[in-house]
Design goal:
Largest sheet: 8 strands, parallel, barrel
Strand order of the largest sheet: 3-4-5-9-10-11-12-13
Distance between the termini: 40 Å
Strand content: 15-25%
Structural class: alpha/beta
Helix content: 25-40%
Shape: globular
Order of helices and strands: EEEHEHEEEEHEHEHEHEHHEHH
Number of strands: 13
Number of helices: 10
Length: about 325
């Protein structure tokens, strides 16, 4: 498994990082805990020795599952988690309400105040069963606290050895520049895939200039770019994909048609469409790693294999043009 240095830090990440959003269940209509643990362990066994999770993924559940999966394997894996989204407190900015798999409403607040960050860090360390978090990231930009306060709290946690490095998620260039004024930010985690390429204008150029690592989430567009989400697929109310623009029937049809156009490229390499989508992201200048989720061991092994897929410049161009041609999702 190829590894790349994360920005200016000494942390090296595999080009495929296990994304633990789905195994938390919330947003995804539930999950199978045993399958999730086996997926993490299979990923580690196949060279995916970094796991990205967050307290918000299942209201602590994803972190707890990661902790169980890495027990006895901590020395083999890098742990990445986050702070700044609270479901257990109403302090801060109200963000959204989501229906949990058990039917209850989960109200989420953005909170990047110093006391909240410290509380979240301690909770994450306990759930994960670790003494240090390798990369601690602010989950979303927030007006609940000034950058100086947020970064001050993170720098103190770093000085205490509770976290090794500081990262941001979903930050644009202006927000990153402000955070960098107050501390050593080493990375930004942001959505990037063949359908959603907004980061190419902001913040990817900034990250390149400032030598910040870039962690790309949703490289398969929540599974849509696997080609397995066919027109007859439906989603329960507790699965957010049913409300996403690209998942609506008219838009989904356009994506499936585009995937068929690049299927010969996948077939020529003995690869899946999902692997092609991930491999394309990994060729983009400035990208450090792709966060790829798996709900079972088979998916985890398939995801790991995407790291070895080598697409030619011509193939990459065809893939890029094919998806540029379908434009934006219709409302």
């Amino acid at each position: 498994m190829e590894h790349r240095k994360l920005g200016t830090s000494d942390l090296e990440l595999p080009v495929i990082t296990f994304g633990a959003w789905g195994i938390g269940g919330l947003f995804w209509g539930g999950s199978d805990d045993d399958e999730g643990i086996r997926a993490i362990q299979a990923a580690i066994d196949h060279g995916v020795d970094a796991i990205d999770t967050a307290p918000m993924y299942g209201c602590g559940h994803s972190e707890s599952l990661v902790g169980k999966a890495i027990k006895g394997r901590r020395d083999r894996v890098r742990i990445l988690t986050k702070c700044g989204l609270r479901w257990d407190s109403t302090e801060g900015e109200f963000y959204f309400t989501i229906k949990a798999p058990d039917g209850r409403d989960v109200c989420v607040y953005k909170n990047t105040k110093a006391a909240s960050i410290r509380h979240e860090c301690e909770q994450s360390l306990t759930r994960l069963g670790v003494e240090t978090i390798d990369l601690y990231q602010v989950h979303w930009p927030s007006a609940s606290a000034p950058a100086e306060e947020t970064m001050g709290a993170l720098v103190r946690l770093k000085e205490e050895g509770k976290i090794r490095h500081i990262g941001m998620c979903n930050y644009r260039a202006a927000d990153l520049a402000e955070a960098l004024r107050f501390g050593p930010v080493v990375s930004d985690q942001i959505k990037y895939n063949l359908l959603e390429r907004e980061i190419e204008s902001d913040p990817l150029p900034f990250c390149r200039r400032e030598n910040l690592g870039v962690l790309c989430y949703s490289p398969m567009a929540l599974g849509l770019l696997t080609g397995k989400v066919t027109m007859d697929r439906t989603f329960p109310e507790t699965d957010i994909r049913g409300r996403m623009p690209w998942y609506q029937p008219t838009n989904r049809r356009r994506v499936l048609d585009a995937l068929e156009k690049i299927r010969p490229i996948a077939d020529a390499h003995g690869a899946t469409l999902a692997q092609v989508a991930v491999a394309w992201v990994l060729t983009r200048q400035g990208v450090t790693t792709a966060l790829v989720g798996a709900r079972n061991a088979r998916q985890a092994v398939e995801n790991a294999a995407a790291a070895g897929l080598r697409l030619s410049e011509q193939e990459l161009a065809v893939i890029g043009w094919t998806f540029e041609a379908i434009g934006k999702p219709a409302c």
